[in-house]
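Hi R.,

As promised on Friday, here is the backbone we talked about, encoded as structure tokens. Could you run it through your design pipeline when you get a chance and send me back a sequence?
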């Protein structure tokens, strides 16, 4: 059984330090960070601290924020939307053509010097987190959220 754990202030600071190093995000959100046994991070309102989670069998609670990986934090679409507007580095802006590829869940070549996890942006919107490596952008959009056809 997966166990969901509320991160203490030291563990939360470690996550926030990763976000600062990766994306230049320097704010402390007024949310509680929780993590499960598969290193998936969830965020929820501070009111959750009033609940005794040890008596509940819960796999996840709140909004899926991202996953802790060996080389940093890989954000969910919603995670990128939470921190993106307040971040200032490793932001990859996509053209309309690349944006459509992204929505379809494709990996594609990019012309950038960025490497590692990057925030993906199209026009004013943050649309997820990908991994730039050797001129390729790896897409982590879940299959259930990919589009087959993009209407113009």
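Update: got your reply. Pasting your designed sequence below so it's all in one thread:
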């Amino acid at each position: 059984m997966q166990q969901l754990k509320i991160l203490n202030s030291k563990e939360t600071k470690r996550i926030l330090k990763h976000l600062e190093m990766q994306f230049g995000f320097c704010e402390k959100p007024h949310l509680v960070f929780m993590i499960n046994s598969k290193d998936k991070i969830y965020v929820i309102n501070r009111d959750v601290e009033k609940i005794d989670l040890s008596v509940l069998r819960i796999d996840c609670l709140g909004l899926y924020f991202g996953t802790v990986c060996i080389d940093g934090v890989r954000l969910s679409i919603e995670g990128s939307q939470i921190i993106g507007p307040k971040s200032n580095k490793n932001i990859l802006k996509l053209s309309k053509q690349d944006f459509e590829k992204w929505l379809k869940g494709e990996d594609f070549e990019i012309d950038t010097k960025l490497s590692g996890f990057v925030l993906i942006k199209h026009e004013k919107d943050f649309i997820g987190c990908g991994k730039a490596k050797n001129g390729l952008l790896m897409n982590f959009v879940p299959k259930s959220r990919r589009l087959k056809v993009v209407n113009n």
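One thing I noticed while checking it: The chain has one domain: 5-145.

Thanks again,
M.
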